[in-house]
Amino acid sequence: MWRVLWIMIASVMAQPVAADSVEPRDGWAVIRTDKSFDTLMTDLRDAVAFNGFAIVTQAGPTDAAKARGIEIPENRVVGVFNNIYAVRILNLSAAAMIEAPIRLYLTEEDDGTATLSYKTPSFVFAPYLDDAPDDLGAAATELDRAFQQIATEATK
After folding, report:
1. Can you say whether the dihedral through the CA atoms of 136, 100, 79, 18 is positive or negative?
2. How far is CA 148 from CA 30, 70, 155, in A?
3. pTM of the model
């Protein structure tokens, strides 16, 4: 009996898991592409560097899930920032720095294409604007333009 139960559990765990697509929502940019996940990741790295930013964090569950026998679509959260903005924002609001780096989310779609999504910096920093100098809002607006440029270059 236990053997049959174990086989049933193992067969369920080995099945591919479908992920939902990221849908547009308030404060988010969602850009669907015709690119593969790997191509979009490479193009994102290039666009980040070209625009004077750096990838400072990366995390994704795909490889760990695969090691457990679970197949999931490729996805990765990539933290992007630069030290000029880090120092500037830290001087304006220590609390707001919890939001850095800004995270971009790459997801693989069922058809093999990839999507780039992120919360806009002005949306991310909005909760801190009332308690910070006006320059925090200006910095967030500048970051909106920079991240839009990074996203445009990575997805073209």
Report:
1. negative
2. 11, 34, 10
3. 0.85
Q: Report the C-alpha dihedral over residues 119, 146, 137, 27, rounded to 10 degrees.
A: -20
Written as one string, the DSSP assignment of the chain is: -HHHHHHHHHHHHTSB---PPPPP-TTEEEEE-SS-HHHHHHHHHHHHHHTT-EEEEEE-SHHHHHHTT-B---EEEEEEE-HHHHHHHHHH-TGGGGGPSEEEEEEE-TTS-EEEEEE-HHHHHGGGGGGS-THHHHHHHHHHHHHHHHHHHHH-
Query: Tens digits of per-residue pLDDT, 117-151?
Result: 999 999 999 999 999 888 999 999 999 999 999 99
Place of tokens 């995390």: 59
Count of CA atoms in the C-beta half-sphere (13 A) of 47: 21
> String of b and e for 12-33 (b: at least 16 CB within 10 Å)?
eeeeeeeeeebeeeeeebbbbb
Q: What does the alpha-carbon distance between residue 142 and residue 88 come to, in Å, rounded to a whole number?
A: 12
